[in-house]
């Protein structure tokens, strides 16, 4: 069972928000205080059938209405143990609660039939927050009971805890506030699930902890009389029994370095998708279930935690009126060729999911200098939430821009002027004034009487007096469509200062053949406001304007018009 869709009305920041979910894993991203953790709390309250408090209402004169689509069973042969005659594969339920009522009402959204409130309890939900760990809320008796069961189950596989492990447990008991059985269970699972038995290794302390959290919650469910776990098990056509489980994780980046963030989340996915055969054996022997039918929800502010697939991403964002909306990757549809490129480029754009605007450039030199240009223009990219992306080629800019716009991220792009004919009609697209970035830079500095500054930048990058070689000149002249025989190789500082056209060609030749992020940084660190080419200023200021418009002062409806040359 998994949640496929939700519409949330009048709940906290969500006045009317629709979300479409991936069946396996969903990553909620967005700026602070937009409602990501609030969404997880809503899932928790709905699955428990508990009431929504008055503070949760965006408007107390209106009811909170939650519409949820559920994929219950995979085919008509499956059924829930508690409802053997029901084989409905999907259902759409609606929960409504006026503020003056104690409990919500639940309806079948397709038929209008009112359903028992305990219908919501068929959604088995467990959560974990790295900010407020739930481990400390579990009774010590639960951990002791699990220690007994795990020890009995693993008796044939374990030789007992090593002295090193026992010493570590004693140390953890002294400095921690959990029962010793909690730490014993971690070691037992470490060995039972073939994890490396090293007391201070991250893979033992955190990866085994993932398994312990899930097993602990399943044990608690198995002992519940209010919501018997047995009735919620799904039986397939082969008679195998599965527990549907929705798991949420809030801020996994806390206490975990990047590799461990991904490792912990990947292990959650493995367990929820029955990819660890030993864990499935353990579930079968201890709880009588063959596996899990799991769905994962993750709230994170870290790009290190994110998967490299846009289809798992839900981005919460605000519009110009400060209303919150959701852009859901699971609902995007592209043709196969476009989708291949989007998945390939997604690792480069993950940081943009947290930004207020994006500036896409074509190559490394631009990437190296534009953030520094922004600082020179008093437009600090980090402060305003402007993400700079290197598309690594002109052909990738439009694909990356398209993906970002699907996620409702305001985006501008800078192209070289030589592709202006094919790109001119696109929105929020800017072009260099000359044929490309390097010629804009060359002409701006030479025409501004800053040849010496250009020499200083190039010589610093070159490590000595730079020379425009024959190969450099041939390459540049092909780009400029001029005869390279008119420009013999020479040191740049030997070029005739009175022949402006020759200066353009020689300096352009060197810059065009020596592109790179290091050169870009030198350029960005060296130029004053007046020395930055106008085309670069236009696109940087456009990105800044979009970032500022993206977060207006609440109640301020006046938005600056964006000018473009």
From TrEMBL:
Protein name in the entry: ATP-dependent endonuclease
Source species of the chain: Megasphaera cerevisiae DSM 20462
InterPro entries xrefs: AAA_GajA/Old/RecF-like (IPR041685), Bact_Antivir_Def_Nuclease (IPR051396), P-loop_NTPase (IPR027417), TOPRIM_OLD (IPR034139)
Keyword set, alphabetical order: Endonuclease, Hydrolase, Nuclease
Residues of the Endonuclease GajA/Old nuclease/RecF-like AAA domain: 1-50, 237-303
Domain called OLD protein-like TOPRIM: residue spans: 353-418
Nucleus as UniProt keyword: no
Single GO molecular function: endonuclease activity
């Amino acid at each position: 069972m998994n949640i496929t869709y939700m519409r949330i009305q009048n709940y906290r920041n969500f006045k009317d928000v629709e979300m479409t979910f991936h069946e396996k894993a969903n990553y909620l991203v967005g700026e602070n205080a937009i409602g990501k953790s609030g969404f997880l709390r809503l899932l928790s309250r709905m699955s428990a059938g508990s009431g929504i408090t008055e503070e949760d209402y965006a408007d107390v004169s209106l009811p909170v209405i939650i519409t949820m689509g559920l994929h219950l069973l995979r085919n008509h042969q499956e059924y829930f143990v508690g409802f053997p005659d029901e084989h409905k594969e999907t259902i759409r339920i609606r929960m409504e609660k006026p503020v003056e009522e104690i409990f919500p009402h639940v309806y079948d959204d397709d038929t209008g039939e009112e359903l028992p409130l305990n219908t919501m309890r068929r959604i088995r939900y467990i959560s974990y927050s790295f900010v407020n760990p739930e481990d400390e809320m579990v009774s010590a008796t639960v951990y002791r009971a699990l220690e007994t069961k795990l020890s009995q189950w693993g008796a044939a596989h374990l030789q007992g805890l090593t002295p090193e492990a026992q010493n570590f447990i004693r140390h953890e008991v002294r400095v921690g506030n959990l029962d010793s059985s909690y730490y014993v269970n971690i070691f037992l699972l470490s060995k039972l699930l073939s994890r490396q038995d090293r007391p201070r290794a991250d893979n033992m302390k955190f990866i085994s902890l993932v398994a312990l959290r899930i097993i602990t919650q399943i044990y608690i469910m198995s002992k519940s009389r209010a919501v018997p776990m047995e009735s919620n098990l799904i039986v397939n056509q082969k008679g195998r029994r599965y527990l549907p489980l929705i798991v949420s994780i809030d801020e996994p980046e806390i206490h975990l370095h990047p590799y461990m963030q991904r490792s912990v989340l990947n292990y959650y996915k493995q367990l929820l998708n029955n990819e660890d055969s030993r864990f499935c054996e353990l579930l079968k022997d201890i709880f009588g279930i063959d596996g899990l039918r799991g769905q994962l929800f993750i709230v994170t502010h870290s790009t290190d935690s994110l998967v490299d697939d846009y289809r798992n991403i839900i981005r919460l964002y605000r519009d110009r009126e400060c209303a919150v909306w959701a852009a859901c990757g699971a609902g995007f549809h592209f043709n196969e060729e476009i989708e291949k490129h989007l998945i390939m480029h997604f690792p480069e754009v993950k940081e943009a999911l947290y930004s207020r605007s994006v500036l896409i450039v074509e190559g490394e030199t631009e990437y190296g200098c534009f953030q520094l240009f922004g600082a020179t223009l008093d437009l600090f990219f980090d402060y305003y939430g402007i993400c700079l992306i290197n598309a690594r080629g002109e052909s990738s800019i439009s694909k990356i821009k398209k993906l970002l716009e699907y996620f409702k991220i305001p985006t501008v792009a800078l192209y070289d002027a030589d592709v202006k004919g094919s790109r001119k009609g696109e929105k929020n697209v800017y072009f260099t004034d000359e044929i490309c970035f390097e010629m804009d830079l060359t002409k701006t500095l030479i025409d501004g009487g800053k040849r010496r500054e250009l020499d200083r930048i190039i010589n610093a990058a070159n490590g000595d007096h730079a020379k425009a070689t024959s190969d450099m000149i041939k390459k540049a002249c092909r780009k400029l469509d001029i005869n390279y025989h008119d420009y013999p190789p020479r040191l740049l500082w030997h070029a005739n200062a009175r022949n402006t056209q020759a200066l353009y060609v020689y300096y352009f030749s060197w810059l065009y053949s020596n592109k790179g992020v290091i050169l870009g940084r030198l350029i960005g660190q060296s130029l004053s406001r007046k020395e930055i080419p106008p085309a670069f200023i236009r696109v940087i200021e456009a990105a800044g304007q979009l970032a500022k418009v993206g977060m207006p002062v609440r109640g301020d409806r006046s938005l600056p018009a964006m000018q473009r040359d």
